[in-house]
Write a structure and sequence with these properties.
With 87 residues, the chain is an alpha+beta fold. It has one domain. Helices cover 31% and strands 9% of the residues. It has 3 helices and 2 strands; from the N terminus they run ααβαβ. Strands 1-2 form a two-stranded parallel sheet. The protein is extended. The termini are far apart.
């Protein structure tokens, strides 16, 4: 089994070049975030406004903004799914 290295890069560039020999000899795994367009947000907000979706059932925890670190910690550990910050 080959040793692996983990590197995380983020970029706003449309194009990223990777040397071919790195892909062949080391292997490359690319993970892209899921993103949706503005129309998805419009549909979701419409469903919420018409009360076809109960958003309260989607929220697992509520935190004051000052407890952001605790909220992120719970999400990272898989102990919370969707958190809401309240003022």
């Amino acid at each position: 089994m080959r040793p692996t290295a983990e590197k995380i890069y983020t970029t706003k560039e449309e194009r990223v070049e990777v040397p071919w020999n790195v892909g062949i000899t080391k292997g490359i795994q690319i993970t892209l975030p899921f993103s949706s367009g503005y129309t998805s947000w419009e549909i979701a907000l419409g469903l919420i406004a018409s009360k076809k979706i109960n958003v309260n059932s989607l929220i697992t925890h509520c935190f004051p903004l000052g407890d952001w670190s605790k909220a992120f910690s719970l999400v990272t550990k898989g102990q919370a799914i969707k958190t809401l910050f309240i003022a």
